[in-house]
Each structure stands twice: as structure tokens, then as C-alpha cells.
Amino acid sequence: GKGNVGRKRLLERTRKGQYLRYVASAVFGLIGSQKGNIVFVTLRGEKGRYVAVPACEHVFIWDLRKGEKILILQGLKHEVTFLCPSPDGLHLAVGYEDGSIRIFSLLSGEGNVTFNGHKAAITSLKYDQLGGRLASGSKDTDIIVWDVINESGLYRLKGHKDAVTQALFLRDKNLLVTSGKDTMVKWWDLDTQHCFKTMVGHRTEVWGLVLVSEEKRLITGASDSELRAWDIAYLQEMEEPEEPEPKKVKGSSPGIQDTREAEDGTLEMDEAPEDRILTCRKAGSIMREGRDRVVNLAVDRTGKILACHGTDSVLEVFRILSKEEIQKKIDKKMKKAKKKAKLNSCKEEEEDLEVNVEMTLQDEIQRVTNIKTSAKIKSFDLIHTPQGELKAVFLLQNNLVELYSLNPSMSTPQTVRTNRITIGGHRSDVRTLSFSSDNIAVLSAAADSIKIWNRSTLQCIRTMTCEYALCSFFVPGDRQVVIGTKTGKLQLYDLASGNLLETIDAHDGALWSLSLSPDQRGFVTGGADKSVKFWDFELVKDENSTQKRLSVKQTRTLQLDEEVLCVSYSPNQKLLAVSLLDCTVKIFYVDTLKFFLSLYGHKLPVICMDISYDGALIATGSADRNVKIWGLDFGDCHKSLFAHDDSVMYLKFVPKSHLFFTAGKDHKIKQWDADKFEHIQTLEGHHQEIWCLAVSPSGDYIVSSSHDKSLRLWERTREPLILEEEREMQREAEYEESVAKEDQP
Questions:
Q1: Which of 48, 397, 566, 627 is buried deepest, with most CB atoms within 10 A?
Q2: Distance (Å, rounded) from C-alpha 535 to C-alpha 548?
Q3: CATH no. for residue 515?
């Protein structure tokens, strides 16, 4: 048929030294990444229904009501570290790990505006009230104010000595207030672009900063369990001090506009310098229940609700009373106090009844409740609906989004979890991947669940609970799957019903590896109990129904002297390769279990291996970062390749060829030619170590899983790849990278 002709052509092509390029096709299995923050976005005029979350280098927009992904804002290659929606709700500003910022339109999903000005990851983004300017803070300690409409940078503010954690525009005045990990809070006058005030009242990093009570109060969160409140008074409202010339900042030569801080922070301690523009006095502290640092501190758009969380799974919610509510409280207190005074001094004259009523900070900022989530909180966002309901959405540590709602004005508010997005990903890292024989279904299994994905739509079609999975395969016929677990069990699942058919105690330690026999009648398992076991499929009578169901029975055991890490059948089923903890690979005859060859040469244990389709070659990948290619006839090492910068975690031959893929802890997937010993191409995309990959039976698709919680699909294109051109492009890219790292632009 057509497929065979295509395959023959492909084989001819690879013989001629021409290869086909694999390209990234999709990211899935990920609900939200840890590095950035979750935000509510307005889409189609609806508030509180859609959220944007960082997803490695992309941004996913989820519909909370349906639990569906409705839009992907495509990134390039750096991870997303910060999100901020524009005030009009039409755009989303996205900050990346490399310091670039892109502004996406939420209508079209396109990012037409890019700002490059920072050298390190973006740590904070904030629009001003109208959305015309954007302030960005970064790990490189700079703050840059950008003109969004003209798509240009306005100015850079230098002064912080460590990463900037927050930057806020004031609503009515042309001022900016910023906080940093250098324990400072700085006030900047944007007319003259310099720092006119540095607050040094914090002993630790300032992690969060919000303005409340009509910008008359500043609340800061640091590394201890108190939120500090500061009262702000604006001097212009009292009297106009004569302004010094803005150009001459202390410590700068005349005529040079220096945008560094005006005073060195030490002045505040001994004699306060003359206050300009505003004064800031500490008003007191609100105690949090958490004992650790504040991770996020935020107010909702209306400024009525304040919330913060630490490194745990509790969000503490406070209500900020308005002027009218405070006045009511004062009146109430006055009444009470007067009554009391009257009772105490009935005989005395009425004049002495001037009663002083002090409002404490605790009266003005009241604790509402705590929201307990199902896992550690990484970030959150609030929305206060006109009906008075508070919605809080959380991005959790275990790849999960949850939405809670409560009514803060009730005396005892009830917190309800209304939605969660869970189907689209595992709670923990995926440790094993398999393709079905028709190339359509993909199995991924992690510490708690197995998911079956449709490769073409990337939808999760089945979720089954399991023990900690380490290896897996589809039973021939694709109706059942077999999983090997960390506790040494074999678990057999039926896909149509999603039921666990059977659990068998196969090994005493972890069951590290499974290999399906080429005749498809059974398989072999290798475990930490130093044994290799052979199993056959069989049909047994089902107690519950008249039909027979699939089961497995053990036929033989091969006992060894070392822990078994990996097993693999040769395609003609004559040989079995077993990788052991003593860094060797032993090869046995399958029929007699007699020893045939020992492949030694790796300095650390062989973690992964595969035998080519014709049984001529075996490739082994080890924790010593090398891949060795051996002949299976005499066990001679053809070539040793330095493959990755860290352990080689997975190795698989492309079906019907001598090309193979390796995956490493260095975040890369590489393709090699086992005949010419050439490195063909590198697939970059993952941001953390790669645990495993699967190559489809047709060789057209690869799926990989990583510690960054994402699964990635790669597909083979028809585009030929010429090695010389690849090398040339690689050299150019390396040169450009080295030039960009130097000081001069």
C-alpha cells in the first residue's frame, strides 16, 4: 500500500544521509505552571468566568464553568513569569523569564507588541488607571515605565538593590510606589523620574504591597507574620513647598539627569530629611495566622477586600471598611461610651462628658475568613461582583485550578468551592508514556492516575486511579493496558469501562521495566528484587459475567545478582537484554535463559536501552551521560557518544530505522543515527528534566513528559534536514547568543 511505499522511500532517504525534521506540535497535560500568576480575564463581556494561567512558554485561557481551554496565547521559548490584564479588559500583558514583555489582544489571541528592556525575569507588571502606561519590575532590580499606546519605553528607574516585587501607579498623582527584596519601599516622582522617598521600616524582604482607603493607606507584606499598615498624607494638599530643581539630584554632577534614588536611605534613621510630596507614618500591624513569609498580597478592584497567603494552602481574607462604615462605628462607640460615662458620673456636670473614642487598625481592617484549598497555593486572583459575592481563583502547586466563592458581608461567611479544572492534567509528574498500535491513543501515568489522550484532539478521554506508575504498555488489541508500579505490582485495566481488572504482586521492590514480547502473547518484567519474570496473557472466566476476561500468569523467573533497571526483547524473540545496577547489560537466550553476552563500559548504571527493528544493534543510555551503540552479534561497542549534559533518561529507536531518540535531564531530546554515529537534531522546548518519551509505531509522532508538568507532542514533517546546514545554523545561533550576553548592545 501507500504506507509501505512511503516507508521504502524514507529508508532510501536515510541511507542517502537525508533525514526528516521533527517539529513541536503541541503542549498538553498542563493546567498551569508554577512560575507565573493566575488572573481573571474579561472575554465576550463576561467577568469572573475566564482565567488566564501561565503554561510553560504559553498562556492558556480556561473557561471555569465548562473546564475547557478556549484560547492559547503562543509564546516563543522562554517561560511566562507574570501576567497582568489591562484595565479595559481587552489586552493581557505577559512577562517572560528572559525579561521581555508581550501584550496580547484577548480578541484575536495575537501578541503584536513586544517590549525588550530587562536583562532578567519579569517579577511584576502593573497598568496605570487608564491603561496607557505599564510599569514592569524585574529580577535585574530595574523598573521600566512603558508607553503602551506609542509602544515605546519612557524611562528606567534604578535604585533597588534586589528583585522588584511590586510596582503601583497612584491614581491621581504622577507617582509610583515600588517594593523589593532589598527590604525597601521606594516612592518615585514620575515627573522628574527619581526616588524622593525610601521607607526603611522593614527588616526583611517586602514581598507584597497594596494601596487601600482611597490611597491614603499602604499595606506591606514581608517575611514575618504581620502586615504593616502605613498612613500617607499628601503635602501639596497642606501647603506648597518650594520645589528644588529636579535636575540636580544629590550625588550627581550638575546638568546630568540621574534617575537613581535621591537619598541613601540612612538619613531616615537619624534625622528625617525634609518630606517632599508626601509623608508616610506607620499606623500599626495586622497579624496574619501564617507564620511564614507573605507569598502574595492583593486587593480586589473595588478596594474593599484584602487577601494574602503564605507558603501553605490557606488564603486569609480581610475586609477594609469604607469611610462611612468607620464613621458609623465611631458614632456607635461614642453612644456606648457616653452612656457608660453618664452612669458613672450621674451627679457631675454634663460638660465632662467629652469622650475620646480611638479607632484601632483592627476596627478598620476586619478579618473575614480563611479559605482552605486542596493543595499549596502558588497564586490567586480576586473579583468582587456587584451582587456582593467574592470569587477567588487559585493556581495550586499540583497542576490544578480551583474557584471558591463567599459573601464577605455576612457575619459568618461560608466558603464554597464552585469549580475546579482537573481533567486536563496529572497532579504529579508523568513517569511513563505509551502509544496504542494505531498511533491514536496515548497513555500517560503518574503517581496517582492514568490518563488516556486522543493524540489528534489532545483531549483526555479516560482517567483511572492507580498506584505510583513506572512503566506501561497497551495490550495488543488496544482494549487493555498494563501498568508496573513502584510497589512492584502489575495492574491490568480495561479501557472501555475504565475499571481495574486485576492487581498482581509481581516483584518485592519497584517494578522498573516492562517489555512486550514480539509474538504479542506475553511480556517480561524486571524489578528491584533482582529478578526478571516472564508472563503470558490468558483468558479466564469472569465471576460477574459469562464472558471471559484477560488475565496474566507467570511462567518463568530468571534470578540475578543485581537490581534490574531495564529489560528489552530482541525483535526475533531469541535474546533478552537486562540492564543491571552494576553498570552492565547482560544478554540472555530467551529459550534456555543461558547467559550470552555482557556489555560493560558505562561508568554508571544503564537507565534505558532499546534494540533496533532488525536486531542488529542495541543502544544503551546511562546516568554517566553517554549513549553506547553495540552490535548484538558479538557484543562489541561500535561507538560511545557523549549525548546529554546530565543523565540520559530514555532511549527509543524510530520503528523500521536505525535512528533513535534520547531524552535527558538537561531538558533536551536528541535524535541520532546509529549507523553513522551522527547527531541529527535537538528538540528543545521542555523547561525541566525529561522523564520519558514514547515514539508512535509509525514513527510520525513523539510524546515526551517532563518535570515542568507538561506533555509535548512532536511530529515528523516532510521537510528534509541536511546536517551541514543544521550545524551552520547552530554555530550562528551560538555566536549571536554570546554577542548578546556581553555588555555592549
A1: 627
A2: 19
A3: 2.130.10.10
